[in-house]
Each structure stands twice: as C-alpha cells, then as structure tokens.
Hints:
By secondary structure, the chain is an alpha/beta fold. It is 47% helix and 15% strand.
Amino acid sequence: MTQTPLVGVVMGSKSDYEVLQAAVDLLKELAIPFEARIVSAHRTPDWLFQYAEEAEQRGLRVIIAGAGGAAHLPGMLAAKTLVPVLGVPVPATMLNGIDSLLSIVQMPKGVPVGTLAIGKPGAANAALFAAEILAAHDADLRVRLREWRAARTQEVMAAELPL
Length: 163
Ligand code: RP5
C-alpha cells in the first residue's frame, strides 16, 4: 500500500498471521490503507511502546491487535495510545483461545480494548469494525461497506440446500 496506513494490524508472532490474515484480506477488499507488523508484548516490549507512542502521529486511526496465550499485546497498546484498539484472541495454546479471549476482554476499567471473537471470524470482524469506525468520516467507504453487506445478503438468498 502506498497511501498512509489508517489501520495498523499487529500480532504477537508470525504464527498469528494465519488468523490475522482474515483481517488483512478484508482491509484489502475494502481498499483501506493498512500496515501489518509483528509486535510482541513480552519479546519486543520496547518496540511495542514505540509502536503505540508513534501510532497517532503516523496517522493510524484504528489498531487491530491479535495475540495468543496470555495475550497482553492489545491491552498494553491501549495503555500507551488513544488510538482505538480492537483485540483478536488467537487460539495458540492447549486452551484454544479461551485464555487469549479472557486476557483481552477482561481489561480493567479505564483502558478499553474492543474484543472480538476467537480466531478468524474475530479477525474478519475486527477489520469490518475498523471499517465502520473509519466510515463515520468517509462516505465512499460507507458505500463500499453497504455493498459488501448487500453481497453477503445475496449469498444467503441465493444459497440452495442439497435436498
Ligand atoms: C503469543 O504467543 C503470540 O501472539 C502467539 O499467539 C503465541 C505463540 O507464539 P510463537 O511461539 O508461535 O512465536 O505471544
């Protein structure tokens, strides 16, 4: 993408990309400028702080953060920036994402993280949520979102059961 990114997609590990790709695919489909980075809360904490501190001045309007296990990445980012953070729980351990979901959703009062569903559905919805946030000030994007929804409606209306 050559335009200034509006959405930052970050993940704790390269292994999370299998899930976060669902967000990236939708951002591409909706023609929303984005960037994607690996930012680990416990392995690259200084980079996490730098990313969060620079996010607003670089023009990011939403951050989508996915992580597995003790998933502190979204909460730590939210603690360091006023850019809205959407958290995507990644199923990465024996607990299949329940650990990540609870880590992300149970932010103490004062530092919100908008938490989505576990895995790819959550990643896709994070991108759609980001698009809705941006569409509040972007009439063209609102049209693209309406068309995207209409296409999903048409898929259901056209579906036939294998009776
Ligand atoms: C978390 O640990 C990451 O977000 C990932 O979901 C999980 C496993 O990371 P790797 O061991 O695959 O690098 O920090």
